[in-house]
């Protein structure tokens, strides 16, 4: 049964995850803009609007007691926050032994703030105002760095025959070569690879990959499967991985 998190914590996207990111920011517009950008990238986003609930959430996630059984991959932490400010929160999280990557945000751009942020244990520092593309790039870089430094603490690689999918790095290797997938293609493949041979209807795939608010046509699924086949299969017209199950939908393997 899910534990009762404080009401300030909101899970906004239950879909397929490239990682769980906790966004701690008291300014609603910034918080929601960041959340939207991360969600579109395929991250599972959790929100906290003050330092106290963020600390509570971090503790629950570290102890595996948040009812969802997945650790945080990254914390995006604003400097100025109610109850516990970003610097103190960062210090506390590190003091309690968590090595989760922390990206600190601040309206101040001075060298001193940056240095203090890094000294209390933040991994990177971004000054407001910033663009969402820069934020996403920083998040990716942090996750990549963290993965290389602590490979054992990360999600395991998903493997199927000659395919390897690295969830944290958003990378897919097929027959020894990296292929480029769009975020949606990646999420379809990740979903397939976590449930080999399970049959998925188009509606189920839309629900899990595009989300319940998707207004488009289920033909969208067919188009993405076709693109995936073109990128992954030796002969896309005779697939070995992405199989059509007539009358039902698709299956992997
Ligand atoms: Ca703030």
What does this structure look like?
- The structure is a single chain.
- The protein has 253 residues and is α/β, with parallel strands linked by helices.
- The protein folds into two domains: 3-147, 3-Layer(aba) Sandwich (Rossmann fold), CATH 3.40.50; 158-252, Arc Repressor Mutant, subunit A.
- It has helices spanning 28-41, 51-62, 86-95, 111-119, 132-149, 183-194, 202-210, 219-232; strands at residues 10-11, 20-24, 44-48, 74-78, 102-106, 124-127, 158-160, 163-166, 171-174, 177-179, 199-200, 242-245, 249-252.
- The strands form three sheets. It has a six-stranded mixed β-sheet with strand order 1-3-2-4-5-6, with helices on both faces. A four-stranded antiparallel β-sheet has the order 7-8-9-10, with helices on one face. A three-stranded antiparallel β-sheet has the order 11-13-12.
- Helix 3 (86-95) links the parallel strand 4 (74-78) and strand 5.
- Helix 6 packs across helix 8 (219-232).
- Bound molecules: calcium ion.
- Calcium ion binds next to loops.
What's the topology here?
Layout: E1 10-11, E2 20-24, H1 28-41, E3 44-48, H2 51-62, E4 74-78, H3 86-95, E5 102-106, H4 111-119, E6 124-127, H5 132-149, E7 158-160, E8 163-166, E9 171-174, E10 177-179, H6 183-194, E11 199-200, H7 202-210, H8 219-232, E12 242-245, E13 249-252
Parallel strand pairs: 2-3, 2-4, 4-5, 5-6
Antiparallel strand pairs: 1-3, 7-8, 8-9, 9-10, 11-13, 12-13
Bound molecules: calcium ion.
Calcium ion (CA) is lined by residues 26-27, 78, 80-81.
